[in-house]
Write a structure and sequence with these properties.
The protein is an alpha/beta fold. It folds into 2 domains: 6-226, Rossmann fold (3-Layer(aba) Sandwich), CATH 3.40.50; 232-287, no CATH class. Helix content is 36%, strand content 25%. The protein has 10 helices and 13 strands. The chain has a 6-stranded mixed sheet with strand order 5-6-7-3-8-9, sandwiched between helices. A 4-stranded antiparallel sheet has the order 11-12-10-13, with helices on one face. Helix 3 (96-106) crosses helix 4 (111-124) and helix 4 crosses helix 5 (140-152). It is globular and about 75 Å long. The protein binds adenosine-5'-triphosphate and magnesium ion. The site of adenosine-5'-triphosphate (ATP) has 11 residues, from helix 1. Magnesium ion (MG) is lined by residues 45-46, 162.
Amino acid sequence: MTELAIHTDQLSKAYDKGVDALKNLSIDVSQGEVFGFLGPNGAGKTTTVKLLTGLLKPTKGQCAVMGLSPSLRQTDVHRICGVMTDSARMYGQMTGMENLAFFAQTADMDEKEAKTRAEELLKAMDLWNARDKKLRAYSTGMTQRLSLARALVNRPKVLFLDEPTSGLDPENAQAVNRLISSMASGQGVTVFLCTHQLRYAQDICERYGIIEKGELLACGTLESMSKSAQIYPKAAIRVKDGDELEGFARTDGGWWQTDLTQEEDMPPLLKKLVGDGHEIYEARIVRPTLEDIYFRYVQIHGEEALS
Ligand SMILES: Nc1ncnc2c1ncn2[C@@H]1O[C@H](COP(=O)(O)OP(=O)(O)OP(=O)(O)O)[C@@H](O)[C@H]1O
Ligand SMILES: [Mg+2]
């Protein structure tokens, strides 16, 4: 069996004043997977990253990164991990180039190697023209990209990204997402991505965990989570003006929609509509989005908490 990149078992953290920030989290992430860890503010995402990188010790349960315990083997874990969080500070009075070269050297590279690595990353992050500017003169988006570059300096096997695209404009966010995907598919880097940006997450993640108030509400692929949340794909059909489809709801632009239990129900449905004399101009399946699934789980959890 290939070693799991990330494994947690009943992982829990209570901060000093009895705040249960994380309760019994059990998840596995395979090598090369892009795992989206989603949840509202205060859900426990950053706490999880801190536990997985050894910055916090669990109150209960355990975790491992590439088979190593982060609290017992912090140095070894840091060698194979890259972390990008808000709190990972760099030096404002140093240039982008100097910052990256410095962190490359702290990751055991000699001066020449460090410079080469810094150059590579500045180019990849579209910061080449800003390489000699002091960091304090960088915009938010530029700082974000530099801190992603910093997380990549040691060519990590596992990358922890805490809201990597939050300060970025759509174009830069897309570029960062493409880079994340290509690292996972091309270089087998495992990515643990904490985010609120569900659309971007849906573009790049293979599996997800949804967390709220320290509890894992769901875990799986888009398909498996939509099945268990009972959110079905919809058939959307456009017929001739003036025609009406019984059992369908009318939507914008002359489209009609109905729930399917599964995608396989689409062909017989179309056959029946044609058999009944309807003229179909367009037909498609509308699959649930990550946003649909996320809000359903958060809503179910809210209702359970109230009852
Ligand atoms: N150092 C701390 N001391 C006490 N409580 C803390 C500490 N850090 C976090 N918490 C609490 O733990 C819970 C989880 O916080 P965490 O930062 O892990 O959430 P998050 O999912 O990362 O949220 P956000 O999306 O806002 O970044 C919150 O209730 C928070 O107030
Ligand atoms: Mg956070």
